[in-house]
């Protein structure tokens, strides 16, 4: 079957199933800018769906067959299963369909410089840093990020330059549909084990992505990661490495951290200092993200000192250790981390911030991930004083019936972690308000809808304050 080409649908109606997603909402804005007529649907009302509606896009909450009527092309995400009523109706009507990753690949195809940032951890932060560097050093890039970056006004930026920058997600092998001329590989770790067999299978997938690079292309990779280094050694194109080790092209010299975990360092290329970086985002992992962004930008011709200055101005993307509120003398933060390694990393940052007690609120993400990484979940919140665990967020999966959040809590307790099962957001908020104290810090973690808990608590606090003001 011939794959539809998005360039053939300018001026025609394109319907997007799951339009509120972090990637889909950005793609919707790109299609609008390219002259497509859009409609969309999602199962939840979010800021993204409201914003698209304000731009004139009719968005329906709830998936129904009639939503695709009148469309000439239907775009869907991998999370939209074949039995979705809109996909079923599109097939019945014989409408052409396009999966999100294929659409993204078509949009980036033809750019002289098409950059894909991949890796198990740090994709959004690295892409966001790189976007800011490219803009501030004059590249005028088009950008697609799987998160929200205030610096570019959201999750997309339509540029006039020759550069297209995007995150390249490995889930379901979707990044293999992209057309990169430059690839950034941050690291390789276990994740998405509902799709990949094991860590070797994951490494092979990243290898296939790097193999998409043309001979005149460029690969930027983490020289401290043995699996990344092995893949880089197989390439014929230009290779640039970053990391702490002496073999790495880009390294941090005179690396220091302040008491709250903010790093400063001299960025050196093969031992020669190119500029100084003082990060406004905390955490040891952001040093690697910054080096990756610098290495990539400078490999594409960015002036090093200017690139370092741009990195030093970076204040972070939303849902990445983001301060979301202050209630009863308690600071509320949220982070997108959704596997044990990411949760452990962000808690190492939270622990350095001034606080009385540190609360970790975990929303486990997908049954398959919890089952495959179960042992890691049991100890990943040891830096917290108290851990609350909500029910598992199913995402695209159905409940298999043999794994439950209560099992995580029981295992945590056996490993000396003080943990409580609070199934719903209402349960979690009630427990927090009954037990937190001024000076505490609460960090919610997950890539599902756990960020809505922070919004819920802030809304309830605003309602309470309004009630008090009215007397």
Q: What is CATH's topology name of the largest domain? A: UDP-N-acetylmuramoyl-L-alanine:D-glutamate ligase
Instruction: List how many beta strands DSSP finds.
Output: 21
Total number of helices: 15
Instruction: Please summarize the sheet with the most strands.
Output: 7 strands, mixed
Q: What's the mean pLDDT score?
A: 94
What would you report as the Rg, rounded to the nearest angstrom?
22 Å
Gross morphology = globular
What strand order characterises the main sheet? 8-7-9-6-10-11-12
Q: What class, by secondary structure content? A: alpha/beta
Beta percentage is 15-25%
The parts where pLDDT drops under 50 for at least 5 residues are none
Helix content: 25-40%
Q: Could you state the CATH homologous superfamily of the largest domain?
A: Mur-like, catalytic domain
CATH class of the largest domain: Alpha Beta
Which architecture of the largest domain per CATH? 3-Layer(aba) Sandwich
Q: List the domain count as a whole number.
A: 3
Termini separation: 67 Å
Provide structural commentary.
- It is a single chain.
- The protein is of the alpha/beta class and 471 residues long.
- The chain has 3 domains: 6-100, Rossmann fold (3-Layer(aba) Sandwich); 109-313, Mur-like, catalytic domain (UDP-N-acetylmuramoyl-L-alanine:D-glutamate ligase, 3-Layer(aba) Sandwich); 322-470, Alpha-Beta Complex (Protein-Tyrosine Phosphatase, Chain A), CATH 3.90.190.20.
- It contains 15 helices and 21 strands.
- It has helices at 22-33, 47-54, 85-93, 100-108, 123-136, 199-210, 226-232, 285-299, 304-313, 340-350, 367-372, 374-377, 405-414, 425-435, 451-470; strands at 13-17, 37-42, 59-61, 73-76, 97-99, 113-118, 142-149, 154-157, 163-167, 182-185, 218-222, 238-242, 250-257, 262-269, 272-282, 322-327, 330-335, 358-362, 386-389, 419-421, 441-445.
- The strands form 4 sheets. It has a 7-stranded mixed β-sheet with strand order 8-7-9-6-10-11-12, with helices on both faces. The protein has a 6-stranded mixed β-sheet with strand order 16-17-21-18-19-20, sandwiched between helices.
- Helix 5 packs across helix 8 (285-299).
- It is globular and about 60 Å long.
- It starts with 12 loop residues before the first strand and ends with a helix.
């Amino acid at each position: 079957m011939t794959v539809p080409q998005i360039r053939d649908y300018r001026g025609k109606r394109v319907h997007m199933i799951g339009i509120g997603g972090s990637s889909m909402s950005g793609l919707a804005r790109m299609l609008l800018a390219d002259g497509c007529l859009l409609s969309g649907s999602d199962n939840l009302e979010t800021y993204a769906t409201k914003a698209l509606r304000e731009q004139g896009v009719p968005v329906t909450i709830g998936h129904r067959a009639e939503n695709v009527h009148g469309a000439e092309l239907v775009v869907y995400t991998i999370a939209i299963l074949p039995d979705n009523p809109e996909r079923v109706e599109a097939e019945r009507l014989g409408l052409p369909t396009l999966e999100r990753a294929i659409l993204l690949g078509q949009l980036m195809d033809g750019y002289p410089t098409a950059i894909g940032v991949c890796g198990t951890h740090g994709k959004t932060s690295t892409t966001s840093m790189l976007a800011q560097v490219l803009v501030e050093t004059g590249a005028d890039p088009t950008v697609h990020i799987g998160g929200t970056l205030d610096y570019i006004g959201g999750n997309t930026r339509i540029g006039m330059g020759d550069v297209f920058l995007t995150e390249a997600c490995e889930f379901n092998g979707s990044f293999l549909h992209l057309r990169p001329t430059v690839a950034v590989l941050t690291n390789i770790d276990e994740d998405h084990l509902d799709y990949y067999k094991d860590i070797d299978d994951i490494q092979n997938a990243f290898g296939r992505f790097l193999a998409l690079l043309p001979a005149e292309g460029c690969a930027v990779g983490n020289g401290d990661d043995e699996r990344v280094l092995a893949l880089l050694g197989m390439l014929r194109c230009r290779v640039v490495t970053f990391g702490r080790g002496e073999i790495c092209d880009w390294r941090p010299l005179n690396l220091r951290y302040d008491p709250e975990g903010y790093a400063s360092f001299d960025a050196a290329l093969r031992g020669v200092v190119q500029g100084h970086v003082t990060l406004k985002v905390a955490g040891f992992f952001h040093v690697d993200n910054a080096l990756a962004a610098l290495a990539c930008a400078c490999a594409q011709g960015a002036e090093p000192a200017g690139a370092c200055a741009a990195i030093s101005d970076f204040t972070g993307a939303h849902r990445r250790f983001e301060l979301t509120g202050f209630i009863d003398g308690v600071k509320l933060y949220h982070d997108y981390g959704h596997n044990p390694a990411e949760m452990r990393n962000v808690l190492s940052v939270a622990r350095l911030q001034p606080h009385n007690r540190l609360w970790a609120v975990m929303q486990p993400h997908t049954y398959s991930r919890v089952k495959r990484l179960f042992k890691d979940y049991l100890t990943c919140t040891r830096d917290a004083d108290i851990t609350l665990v909500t029910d598992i967020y199913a995402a695209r999966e159905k409940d298999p019936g043999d794994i439950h959040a209560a099992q995580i809590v029981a295992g945590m307790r056996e490993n000396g972690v003080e943990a409580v099962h609070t199934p719903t957001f209402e349960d979690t908020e009630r427990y927090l308000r009954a037990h937190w104290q001024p000076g505490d810090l609460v960090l919610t973690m997950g890539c599902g809808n756990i960020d809505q808990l922070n919004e819920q608590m802030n809304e309830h606090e605003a309602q309470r304050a309004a009630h008090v003001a009215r007397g």
